[in-house]
Amino acid sequence: MRVGAFAYPWDVVGDPQAPDRLAALGVHQVTLAAAYHSTRALTPRHPRHRIVTARHSAVLYPPDPGRWAGRALRPYTQDWVADPDPFGTAARALTAAGLEVHSWVVLAHNSRLGADHPSSVVRNAYGDRYPWAPCIARPEVRDYLVRLAAEAAVRPGARGVELESCGWYGLAHLHGHDKLAGVGLGGAAEYLMSVCCCPVCRAGYAALGLPGGEVAAAVRRALEPVWAGAAPPDGGGRAGEWAAVEDLLGAGPAGAVRAWRERVADELQRAVVHAVRDAAAHASVDGFRVLLHADPAPHRCGPNAGVDPVGVLAHADGVVVPCTGGEGARAAALGPFVRRPAGTTLAANLTIVGGMGGSPATLAADAAHAAALGADELRLYHAGLAGAADLEAVRGALRALNRSAGGRAQGSGAASVPLS
To answer: What is the mean pLDDT of the chain?
Structure first.
């Protein structure tokens, strides 16, 4: 089973031991951030720093001025890594250690873009703007995301890309000093709070037979009992969430809203994949793989964008699916993809940082369970953030998996490199 681990360029740049340390885990590839959102990240092994604060969304390479000339929406550059091309520097070092590099590109999640261009973002039924969530129905946003994907994905040294947030973003957001827990929402109400009611989306709903403001009004009516203290309606799980949405809005309006949002997301995903493949062909990179971080429920939004589990693999080479949690959660996430086309990838994404809800101690069993459900690859989140004990557990688990498969993972020859 092919195994990849996520990493940031700042985990590698300035740390000569980082590439061999990653190779020592027994992974085949590193999925390296090329365009990423704001974050505060621990670097527990770096010789020069312990905390990196990425203050805003940015590309981690020098963007092409010609691609963005005259465009209001354009990527931001970074200044928290002392290198003009952090992705390129890290990619070269990782490749020299025998690791295959794939770019990691975050698309429709950008708080600074939304703050600078407030008309470009999701607007909920109450008129509140979500600056972290560009509205992917807007033509200027779609153009920006397609251009960004093509540029950030096909960086020198990259053999493929994994696209995060390639779809709708909504209410859920790991925001600093969050104060949203006062009223429990549940999946259905959270979805309703994520439905965009900007002018472009209102026009889209109207074209499907819903009057201009009816969606916003219906959402407000449906949520009023929740604000008044009623338990949020939620049938549990993906199917139960959608059934609750239909109960709240009515099957007809809910279906029209979903049809609009699914069409917009599908068009974006197809355009992004096409642009990335064109860029790879122009750069003469053969076999460049394009994977989407995805959830098999089309109504869900966030970093793992909701997709049609059959339709998405008509244009993408595969999906990366969040699988942290128990066996039931893993089965629900992977099961809908079991009938995927031959030659496509189903990668199970497992968190390996104990302090972030991961379970590195059970990685071998969790990976075996994911494989039994049809996963043919693993992704490990996140090799740069994990502590020494977590990484040691990962290395042991991957050795056990290799022994059980009767093989030896590529890149595991540097086992003498310390993990601490």
So the answer is: 94
Indicate the DSSP class of residue 227: H
Q: Quick: pLDDT tens for 351-384.
A: 999 999 999 999 999 999 999 999 999 999 999 9
- DSSP letters of 76-90? PP--SSSSS-HHHHH
Confidence class for position 410, pLDDT limits 50, 70, 90: very low
Residue count of the chain, please give it: 420
Note the helical H segments in 77-231.
Answer: 86-96, 111-116, 139-153, 186-192, 199-207, 214-227
Cβ count near 184 (within 10 Å):
12
What ranges make up the beta strands (E) of 271-384?
289-295, 305-306, 318-322, 345-351, 377-381
Q: What is the pTM of this model?
A: 0.95
Residue carrying structure tokens 């940031």: 8
Longest alpha-carbon distance in the chain: 66
**Cα 229 from chain centroid?**
33
pLDDT at 140 over 80: yes
Give me the pLDDT at residue 98, please. Answer: 98
Residue 251 tokens read as 């099957």
Q: Where are the alpha helices (DSSP H) in 228-324?
A: 237-249, 251-282
Instruction: Answer whether residue 13 shows pLDDT above 50.
Output: yes
CA–CA dist 319, 313 (Å, integer): 8
**Cα 68 off chain centre by:** 24
Neighbours of 171 (CB within 10 A): 21
Per-residue DSSP letters for 188-217? HHHHHTT---SHHHHHHHHHTT--TTHHHH
First and final C-alpha spacing in the chain: 26
pLDDT of 407 reads: 47
Residue 49: which of 36, 40, 57, 61 has the closest Cα? 40
74 contacts: CB under 8 Å, gap ≥ 6 = 63, 68, 144
Query: What DSSP string runs through 369-417?
Result: HHHHTT--EEEEETTTT--HHHHHHHHHHHHHHHHHHTS--TT-TTTTS
Given a contact cutoff of 8 angstroms between Cβ atoms, the answer to whether 9 and 89 are in contact is yes
